[in-house]
Backbone:
């Protein structure tokens, strides 16, 4: 009989690529992960891994087993959801991951509703970079999370996860003066091709979106500052330190000196959870509260 816990380790190895990364993500030692995978190979009766020095790759049999593992884990999530439905209402801890602007603009109202409707539920919120959400959900560190993508940076399909749309918001060019061009659409950005830019830190979706939007307008931005917090970004814009692209939910307490120009670029937010968990009462309750907390003009994901 194959052990589900060891199957999870194999699945994580297929996503993360190295035993060290699996060990770090799941709070094991590399030797413990390696040992458990060796036991799984003995249980399976076939080679699941190919080792070459420090590198490990899945054999064709290992890859097929990972595909079956995804189905097994989905069925386990469905079973857990059915058992939870038999209990009296959502209860217990629920780990929620969200990016900063959603944490500030959406989560407080949603949590207030959850407290009033489901006093037995204990939401636990952690600010989480969307780039880390998929791994955290698969590892069980989160139960539900908010992800976002941009028109220029579509989100990849993540194995083992299901998503549903929450909201779509426009992006704005923030500057300390009106736009320098009378053009429309992304041509507005061309008027700021020589200006310093403020972007998020490299590696984030927001940073990639800004660079790609500028490239679509015909130039590569000269980045002066790299800041992830939109309130700080707007303060720097007001101080004449550069221009930036900011989503609607990031426009909080906008300084009077900042001019905003709406662009034909959108950020879309989705609710993500492990595949099979969508019927879990706690997940359903959180999703409903999140949808109710979204400003009406942003509701939906189209």
Residues:
């Amino acid at each position: 009989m194959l052990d589900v816990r060891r199957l999870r380790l194999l699945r994580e190895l297929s996503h993360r690529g190295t035993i060290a990364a699996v060990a770090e993500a799941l709070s094991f030692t590399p030797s413990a992960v390696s040992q458990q995978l060796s036991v799984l190979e003995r249980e399976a009766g076939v080679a699941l891994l190919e080792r070459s020095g420090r590198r490990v790759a899945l054999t064709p049999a290992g890859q097929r087993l990972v595909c079956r593992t995804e189905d097994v884990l989905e069925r386990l999530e469905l079973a857990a959801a059915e058992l939870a439905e038999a209990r009296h209402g959502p209860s217990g801890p629920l780990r929620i991951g969200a990016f900063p602007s959603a944490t500030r603009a959406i989560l407080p109202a949603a949590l207030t509703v959850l407290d009033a409707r489901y006093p037995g539920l204990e939401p636990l919120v952690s600010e989480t970079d969307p780039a880390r959400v998929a791994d955290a959900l698969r590892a069980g560190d989160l139960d539900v999370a908010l992800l976002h993508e941009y028109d220029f940076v579509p989100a990849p399909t993540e194995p083992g996860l299901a998503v549903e749309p929450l909201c779509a918001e426009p992006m704005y060019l923030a500057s300390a003066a009106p736009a320098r061009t009378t053009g429309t659409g992304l041509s507005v950005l061309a008027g700021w091709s020589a200006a310093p830019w403020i972007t998020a830190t490299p590696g984030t979706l927001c940073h990639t979106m800004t660079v790609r939007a500028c490239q679509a307008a015909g130039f590569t931005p000269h980045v002066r500052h790299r800041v992830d917090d939109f309130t700080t970004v707007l303060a720097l814009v007001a101080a004449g330190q550069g221009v930036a692209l900011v989503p609607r939910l990031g426009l909080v307490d906008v300084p009077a000196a900042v001019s905003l120009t709406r662009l034909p670029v959108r950020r879309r937010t989705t609710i993500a959870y492990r595949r099979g968990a969508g019927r879990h009462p706690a997940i359903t309750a959180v999703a409903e509260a999140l949808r109710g907390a979204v400003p009406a003009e942003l509701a939906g994901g189209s």
